Amino acid sequence: MRFAFSMRNGYTLGIESTAHTFSFGLVDPNGEPIPSVSDTIRPTEGGIHPREAADHHVELSAELLSKLFENNGLQPSDITGVAYSQGPGMGACLRIGAAAARTIASKLDVPLIGVNHCVAHIEIGRQQCGCDDPILLYVSGGNTQVIARLDGRYRVLGETLDIGIGNMLDKFARNHGLPFPGGPQIEKAALKWIEENPNPTIEGLELPYAVHGMDLTFSGILTAANKLVEKGNPFEAVCWSLQEHAFAACIEVAERALAHTGKSEVLLGGGVACNERLRNMSEIMCEERSASSHCPPKMYCIDNGTMIAMLGWLELNSGRITTPQQSGVDQEMRTDHTPVIWA
Ligand code: AMP
Ligand code: MG
User: Fold this and answer.
1) What is the DSSP string of 87-121?
2) pLDDT digits (tens, 9 = 90+) for 250-308
3) Is 181 in the pocket of ligand 1 (CB under 6 A)?
4) Which three-class secondary structure state does DSSP give residue 225?
C-alpha cells in the first residue's frame, strides 16, 4: 500500500527485537539518527531461549521507551511514524516488537512500517559512512552474509551455510567458561596473545578453511578450535587463530564480491563488525585493491532501534506503509525480499 505522507514534521521511532536485544531508537525529522536506548538479555547458561528473551523484552519495554523520550526531551506526540523489525529473527521476540509498534502507532494515529532487519544494517551503515553502493559484509550473531545491491534489491552473494559467525564465537567462548557475548572476550584474549608473542606462528594452530565458493561454514572451525584447547594449546593462542581463520574467510568472500561486481566500497555491519582485527583486515584488503573500507560506530553495528527508525523513515518517505493486516512477522525474511525503492 502506498501512502502520501511527509515525515518532515516529526520523529520516526524504531523498534528492534529480532533476538537478544530490545531497543528503541529515533531519527529526527530530517532522517538524522539519534542513539538508541537498549537492553540485551545475557543468559547465565546456554544460548538464548526465545521465550525468555521475549519475556525480557516485554518487561523492559515501558522503561526503555520512557528513557528514550526523557533523554531527548520528547513526548509521544512528537512521533510521526513507527518502524519495527519485521524479520528475520526469532518469532517470539519479533512478535513483541511488532505488537509494541502496532499499539504505539494506533494510539498515536501515525503510520506503521515493518522493515527488513538486514537491510536496516546496510542503510544505517551507508548513512553513517557516506558510502554509496558498497559490498556489505554483514557479520552478526545469527547472520553472516555478503550482500550487494543489484537490480533494485540487496542480493545475497554469499552466506554462512551453517551458523552465524557471532554464534560461533559465542559458543566457543561458552565452551570455555566465558559468558555471552563471547566475541569481545575472544578479541581481548587474541590481543593478549599477540602482545605476549609479537611474531605468532600459526603452526600447530591450523583450523579448517571456511570458504566454499561464495559461501562460508563455521561449525568445522568451532569443533577444531575446541579440540585445540582440549589438546592443551593456550586458550589465548586458539582465540587468535580462530579470529585469523574466521575473519580471513569473510574478507576473502567480500574480496571476491568486489571482483565479481566491480564495486569499490566495503561496508561492515553487525555486532562482529565491532572487532578491530576484522576492521583492520578489511582495510588491508581494500587498500590492496584500491577500494575503500567503511564501518559505522559500534553502537550502530550491534542491533539497535535507530537503524530500524532510519530504514522506516526512508520507506515511509518513499510512500510505503504496513497496514495492520500486513503487520505479521516473518522469521525467515530474506535480505532480497525488500525492493529498494528509496536509493
Ligand atoms: P548482533 O547479532 O548484530 O547484535 O551482534 C551480536 C554478536 O556480535 C555476538 O555474537 C557478539 O559476540 C558479537 N560481537 C560483539 N562485539 C564483538 C567483538 N568486538 N568481536 C567479535 N564479535 C563481537
Ligand atoms: Mg543484526
Assistant:
1) ESS-HHHHHHHHHHHHHHHHHHT--EEEEEHHHHH
2) 999 999 999 999 999 999 999 999 999 999 999 999 999 999 999 999 999 999 999 99
3) yes
4) helix
Copy the grid coordinates of residue 265. Answer: 566500497
What pLDDT score was predicted for residue 2?
43
As a whole number of angstroms, the distance between CA 212 and CA 160 comes to: 9
Assign residue 161 a region (left: φ > 0; alpha: ψ between -120 and 50; beta: otherwise).
alpha
Residue pair 299/116 in contact by the 8 Å Cβ criterion: no
Rounded to whole angstroms, how far apart are CA atoms 189 and 201? 16
Verify whether ligand 1 is closer than 6 Å to residue 296 (CB atom). no
Ligand 1 close to Cβ of residue 187 (< 6 A): yes
pTM: 0.93
Euclidean distance between the first and the last CA atom of the chain, given in angstroms as a whole number: 19
What span, in angstroms and rounded, lies between the C-alpha atoms of 33 and 209?
39
Ligand 1 site-directed mutation target among 48, 94, 250, 302, most atoms within 8 Å of CB: 302
Nearest CA to ligand 1 atom 2: 141
Is residue 86 within 8 A of residue 48, CB to CB? The reply is no
Cis peptide before 50 (omega within 30 of 0): no
Atom of ligand 1 nearest to the CA of 40: 4
- Distance (angstroms) between ligand 1 centre and the Cα of 319 equals 34
Cα 163 to ligand 1 centre (Å): 14
Task: Let me know: does 83 contact 113? Beta carbons within 8 Å.
Answer: yes
Give CA torsion, residues 90, 60, 299, 318, to 10 deg.
70
